[in-house]
Here is the input.
Amino acid sequence: MIQDIAPYKLDNQWKLAQPKDTDIVMLFSKGKVMASTADGCLSFPKVSDVSSAGVDRDDLRYLFSISNSSVAETVQSYFLLQNPDLQLPGFDFADLRQIRDTPTDDMYKIMAMMTAKHLDDWYRDTRFCGRCGCKTLHSAKERAMVCSDEHCGYTMYPRIMPAVIVGVTNGDKLLLTKYRTGFGHNALIAGFTEIGETLEETVAREVMEEAGVKVKNIRYYKSQPWGLANDILMGYWCDVDGDTTIRMDENELKEAHWVAREDIELQPTNVSLTNEMMMKFKNSEA
Here is the structure.
């Protein structure tokens, strides 16, 4: 997870930064990211690559920096370029989810990709003011988009949607699911928090909606930024309350079962909070 990428460390504070040749450039288009996976090594374009292709450095938008504490004074900044038609030798647009599910020793690169994707979505969706419809401008003092109409002046900040990941336990069994479409590996109950709802209420509602069971002893575990869906995931454990019969929502899921610890099949990578929670239960650590 982006907060667990030691010896690398994320600095997500906005600042005025000038791109260096060795800094990273992120480009996204229709669920894909400009990358190279040659020889099984994930890499993204550098500023020098896009400059050679004729891109003006003023078109690069600073995102964040990642440092390596094991190497003195090693800091690499990440910039956003919103130009989906750009062609770069040695790079191509690759599916975000496929990259996410590819094992790699450089997990920080995947986490950086997802964080950059969250910001790319936000910049794309705030080109116009949501109040008056006028064009927006980049703030010169913070990460914000400001309405160009002086009579409106509405300021927009990046939005993060709260969601829960729920590990429902039944003694030595865990409730595992598989989505009807999209992600094909084992997962836990998950869902977004609705307006006026506490996170604990979200847990109980989502479990009832997706699996048809009641829960008790709801307890917080930990959180994870998840840029692919522009949300902040909050993991919870809870116990089944009463009837253990699963009544699956077939519109959302294609499978939902109680699975014994030793039989749990994990996801192919350790990227997600979901996989961490499944692993904790499998290893009798939860």
Summary: The two ends are 19 Å apart (CA to CA). The helical segments are 47-52, 96-100, 107-125, 199-211, 273-282. The chain is about 20% helix and 30% strand. Residues 127 and 272 are 31 Å apart (CA to CA).
